[in-house]
Write a structure and sequence with these properties.
Length: 135
Amino acid sequence: MAVYREKDIFERRNAANEAKRALLERFKARPAEDDPRVLARKAERQAILEARAKREAERERLRKEREALEAAERARREAEEAERRRQEEERLAAEALVREQQEVERIAQELALEAERKAKRDARYAARKSKRGRG
């Protein structure tokens, strides 16, 4: 069975120093800014960013075109709906006018019939009076 042994302060300090030294060596081993590999990687990242910007611009252009088409379609539908409503209103107004004319004609016929009945009634009344000798 292994016995756990706690590290003393010297071992911990040496381990920390080794870690710092390794980080420093990694930093120093990094290629310089003018290294061809660094420049190539930078150019590649720049190309990716430019391609992304182009794709975003294209998506935005397509979105605007789609919105414009949708707006034009919506305007066309609204115009058709307005025209349909106008025609329906005209049809209803014409029907109402026809009904009104029919009602006027019916009332005129009724009044004429009533006047004819009254004239007959008055004629009967006058005939009855003339029979009795009053007059």
